[in-house]
Design brief:
Chains A, B: GO terms for molecular function: metal ion binding; prenyltransferase activity. The structure is a homodimer. Chain A is mostly helical. Chain A has 16 helices and two strands. The first copy, chain A, has a two-stranded antiparallel ribbon with strand order 1-2.
Amino acid sequence: MSPVMRQQTSALEPTLARICSYHLGFTDERGDPSSAEGKLTRSALMMMAADGVGLRPEDMRCQAAAMELLHNSTLIHDDIIDGDELRRGRPAAWKVFGASLAILAGDAMQALGLQMVVDDPGPGRAEISSAFAKALGLVLSGQARELTVRLGPDTGIAEYDRIVEEKTSALLECALVTPALRAGTPEHVLAALRSAGRHLGLAFQIFNDVEDIWGDPTVTGKPVRSDILRRNPSFPVLAALSADTPASERLRRLWHADGTTAAHLQQMADLVEESGGRHTAERLSRNHLDSALEHLGQAELSRAASTELTALFDRIVHRS
Amino acid sequence: MSPVMRQQTSALEPTLARICSYHLGFTDERGDPSSAEGKLTRSALMMMAADGVGLRPEDMRCQAAAMELLHNSTLIHDDIIDGDELRRGRPAAWKVFGASLAILAGDAMQALGLQMVVDDPGPGRAEISSAFAKALGLVLSGQARELTVRLGPDTGIAEYDRIVEEKTSALLECALVTPALRAGTPEHVLAALRSAGRHLGLAFQIFNDVEDIWGDPTVTGKPVRSDILRRNPSFPVLAALSADTPASERLRRLWHADGTTAAHLQQMADLVEESGGRHTAERLSRNHLDSALEHLGQAELSRAASTELTALFDRIVHRS
């Protein structure tokens, strides 16, 4: 995937090319070669699904690269919005090049990603272009909802699911469905792949929330407990707050107070666990992964691709 | 155009819908109805060109609305980038809703605009989608160049033209050419329309630069002489700095000093005029407008549409 991404972004206006290349991990801050690329999860999903519907890699390479560009266009803006200073262990693009140019670089990746699918003349061009534009719109919608919706114990879990379905699942669904659109598979296959992507996104995001609290920061690449620190109601916290136990009551009080020391965070993490929030989250993530695999099994992909995708789904959720 | 824009943006996620509606002038800060819309120049160009190639308004309405959304996606981000607090006499969207949500709202307008053209099933769909994505990419490229290129008396004017061709002309060209793509007109018509849009953008931008220095702020809607204040090398300044006269030498010294009082700005404006910068700019803007009209004349549009477009070109350049 990387060669197509490199080639396409290097043709951008020089400053935008440099920022995109940095953000994508191809170069360092001085523009020298680097290898800090992301996991390219979405393009890997797309290429395996392509194999599963009988397409050749070259039939889908442009779309897979475009999908990574779209995904990264949302990440580069997201880092500005959240004030995140690190991305994959390096300074975020806006810290290196300033927010103004990082905004334009994100816009440029978005426009380029859509241009690549629009310009590719293969079968299903219109349907694929439409799926990409729609998925991008959903990601933006989910990001906006995340910034504005006040998640609480009452309305929390339904809203949480909706945000994740937009912010995380939409591109995963699009990655899985694009090869099927190109191959012209029947509607029930498309539906199965969409459901697989939806559940995969939920499984991933919920497990990600668990890792934020109890994971190893050297594996997640993020400071531990940033969700609790920011009072971001992640899934285990929502589940804990919804429980009707003395521990969840104590958690609620601490949550609404403004303690941010490591001891405070540890105490809240312990209360989330004591209220059953961790257990519920781990169980739900597992259930969503099971559902994702069940839908994948209904998508009539080749045996080899199904096996590969099954392993990839697991790696995506468990970040291994 | 507005009904389509309203309908499309109102279907966005509620917060994004509210910000887009505010930015587009449909509502005020509280969400109450307002009428502070822009001039919708690009959609007007597209609708007249559509008439000129024999299309009906309904054949092009979706594209015209999409074009305005793309244009506005660049404006909402541009205001953040430039720190501009006013847009059409009202607080810029980022001042009202914060930069984070304004970034997402710009992204959402961009994605929506492209989605609308991608989803429209009429003739020339692929070519039109491609033209839109390409034009948007050029605008972003021009914006990035403007932030990073140091315009000076030597390399200035060629670089200036390039920036304007990308930042301003690209969407005007796209607006004029889209109906021709839908109607399937021959290549020489497309070429004539592209050239008309290119020169129109240059004529507009150069005259705009003149107005920034000597225009009436109640007409331009912007604080007078902001280009000089920010040491933004606008066309009259570039032309003046390139002249080899005592006045241009004095201008150069003041330009590189940091005087920003009204008296400083007045003195620099006078030196730009004395060095011939205003005269050159006005002449060049007129020449570009003449060229734009000449190319328009070669586009074989209907007589009525040509007449209307001629008048619109003039209004666009002279903001009347």
